[in-house]
Design brief:
Oligomer: homodimer
Strand content of chain A: under 5%
Number of strands of chain A: 0
Number of helices of chain A: 11
Order of helices and strands of chain A: HHHHHHHHHHH
Shape of chain A: globular
Helix content of chain A: over 70%
Radius of gyration of chain A: 19 Å
Amino acid sequence: MTETATLAARYTISMNQLPVLTAAPMGLRERRRRDTLREVSNAAIELFERNGVTETTVDDIAETAGISQRTFFRYYSTKEQAVCACDVGLGTVMERAVAAIRAGAPVVAALEDAWMRLFDELDASPEEHRRTLRVRRLVQSEPTLLARTLANEAERIEELTAAAVDAAGPGIDVLTARALFTVISTTTRLAFDEWARRVEKGADASVRDIYLDLRRGLGTYAKHLTDDLR
Amino acid sequence: MTETATLAARYTISMNQLPVLTAAPMGLRERRRRDTLREVSNAAIELFERNGVTETTVDDIAETAGISQRTFFRYYSTKEQAVCACDVGLGTVMERAVAAIRAGAPVVAALEDAWMRLFDELDASPEEHRRTLRVRRLVQSEPTLLARTLANEAERIEELTAAAVDAAGPGIDVLTARALFTVISTTTRLAFDEWARRVEKGADASVRDIYLDLRRGLGTYAKHLTDDLR
DNA sequence: TGCCAAAGTGGCAGTCTCTGTCATATAATT
DNA sequence: AATTATATGACAGAGACTGCCACTTTGGCA
């Protein structure tokens, strides 16, 4: 791999890596980078909503955001990523969950707490709230965005699993840990979807409540899971 | 949409639709089609294993399979699909699960039974067994294949959910049903992954047993899920 | 303050994926 | 055997993405 490639990789959003909590000095460079990330993402959302993903070209997005196509690809690896990468504050959730796990918290609680905090923060910020809703709607209606979202989710789960192994030592039941992370992530995604659906219908809904409902529903069924099958 | 597009769609594997159980007369045409599907898939597996997905072009696969690039795309919509589409006998599982659900079986049991039957059939057919192993290994090591697999999985879950709603009427708890299907599908996938890992290490493992272990493990944790969070 | 190295940007060429179209060939139907 | 429905390959063309290079901007640092 060439040096150029390495540098590019460092600066391309391959999954989700907005350093939300890093309170570094952040010079002009970093500030502009974030602004551009945001602008490009907004342009993508806008165009996807208006014309659909397939009808929207990278050139369209780049032009709307006022950058060249070449530069677009330095910010997002695909047009789908422009919408999916920072999709809700995933970066924050991951950081908190990993931190909690490394601090010795039970894995399920660590991840669930991190999500709960995000839910609350979303409720507190009307702007993020609205943006998240638009993104979820898009992801629901556009298969290519869903595909990208699921891939990102899988990547996050692997990170979490790695963190858990790292924190708890190799004695941990990796398989079950991975399964639990997956179930929680999935449930969260379904909760967001349902939330988007309800808001769409005019009802006002809370992601948190939907998640808890879903959780309870799963629990009811799961009580039988320790029984043998057949 | 033009007529050509419609026809093409009918004949392109967009997810997984090998009509495994259709005992129709099956003329020469259909037989050849299946042979080609298989050959192309084999070529893809072979080349992906040898050179990796990104290093393998559609032209490479097409040439190896002895068809033109244009024809390749009439069989599979992307090079990833050539490996992921018929990935284990998903078609069979889906058909059986949907049939059972329409016949009034409980949704969880319907899907789990269908998977169990596939596990057993895999154990009974060394060839399919081996092929499945190669595919799972590839999917594990190649992110683009994983992405495709997850997207296919999501598509299947929607089909199942639709079948459940259709069979049980709109009174059903769609949200929970979708969640249960997702959890089962996910668990199955993780079981296959673990199975591939173990076989890799020389241990001989059974997907069925791993699935049941995982199921029990989840059940143990899930007993607490009906308790309120915090 | 002024200079230098590091980093960001745009343009261009080139590869690869994927689709529409059409002429040709092969199976299915009657 | 004649007709029709499908499959195939070749070609053209759009769009996604990458490497490369010239040029500009930013962030220290003397």
